[in-house]
From TrEMBL:
GO terms for biological process: D-ribose metabolic process; pentose-phosphate shunt, non-oxidative branch. This is Ribose-5-phosphate isomerase A. Catalyzes the reversible conversion of ribose-5-phosphate to ribulose 5-phosphate. HAMAP family: Rib_5P_isom_A. InterPro entries: NagB/RpiA_transferase-like, Ribose5P_isomerase_typA_subgr, Ribose5P_isomerase_type_A. It is an enzyme of class 5 (isomerase). Belongs to the ribose 5-phosphate isomerase family. NCBIfam families: PRK00702.1, rpiA.
Length: 262
């Protein structure tokens, strides 16, 4: 069964499996969204079944909530949990200061709320998402549908005033219609190539009327777990600047590998 996994899925899987080791009995855990986070939810379900951990999980999307219930996790809302011990999530890009671009799966709003409500955010990724400077991946911006074209024009004006060159913005589509997020909003993707001042951009984007949230996660992530296709994992911790390495075996499990990908 594991032979069917691509190297990239193996990398995502080992990062996810390693990150689940941070989960302890009694914790309230935020569950990210996306293909990497889906591996983590499956791994967590298995650990909870095998070790009898009592955890409560707060998902960041309807997709993750459905998967979490499928694998037997106790799903509660953020309002029930209030604060979380840990959130584990994927990312679209990660820089050396652990700033992130998120929202490729349109879940950035709930993801940012949940991660910010957590004592610790662990990001799981493969090496392809590590970058010197954020911005090659289009930056998602969640905007309310009312007047979105005006909001888009204001965003473009703001980018001009910041001298962000060569940018384009596009409304994310779902087939022929605009995509709606779980919160009923649209996504504008900002194609910027390179984000010089991440902190400044994150702040000014959220000042624009109509913008609900942006996909820049600044000073939120503490730990990054990078997985590799050969089973290696690297754990980087910003708090003590440590880097630890490990290697995980691929263990065949029908539960984990029956439904590949997100
Ligand atoms: O909105 C989606 C999230 O921010 C995802 O965590 C991000 O897009 C990474 O997804 P994946 O693990 O599928 O690459």
């Amino acid at each position: 069964m594991t032979g069917e996994l691509s190297p990239i899925d193996k990398a995502k899987f080992v990062a996810a499996k390693k990150a689940v080791e941070f989960v302890e009995d009694g914790m309230r855990v935020g569950l990210g969204t996306g293909s990497t986070a889906a591996w983590m939810v499956r791994c967590l379900g298995e650990v909870v079944r095998e070790e009898g951990l009592r955890i409560r999980a707060v998902p960041t999307s309807a997709r993750t909530a459905a998967l979490a219930r499928d694998v037997g996790l106790d799903v509660i809302s953020l309002d029930e949990a209030r604060w979380l011990d840990l959130t584990i999530d994927g990312a679209d890009e990660v820089d050396h200061e652990f700033n992130l671009i998120k929202g490729g799966g349109a879940a950035l709003l709930q993801e940012k709320i949940v991660a910010t409500a957590s004592d610790r955010m662990v990001v799981i990724t493969d090496a392809s998402k590590e970058v010197e400077t954020l911005g090659a991946f289009p930056l998602p911006l969640e905007v309310i549908p009312f007047g979105w074209q005006t909001t888009k024009a204001l965003v473009e004006e703001m980018l001009d005033s910041l001298d962000v060159m060569g940018r384009t913005t596009s409304l994310r589509m779902n087939g022929a219609a605009p995509l709606f997020t779980d919160e009923g909003n649209h996504i504008l993707d900002l194609h910027l190539n390179r984000i010089g001042n991440v902190r400044q951009l994150a702040m000014v984007l959220n000042q624009i009327p109509g913008v609900v949230e942006n996909g820049l996660f600044v000073d939120i992530c503490d730990t990054v777990v990078v997985g590799y296709g050969d089973g290696r994992v690297q754990l980087r911790d910003l708090n003590d600047n440590s880097i630890r390495e490990d290697r995980l075996e691929f263990v065949e499990s029908d539960n984990l590998f029956a439904d590949l990908g997100d």
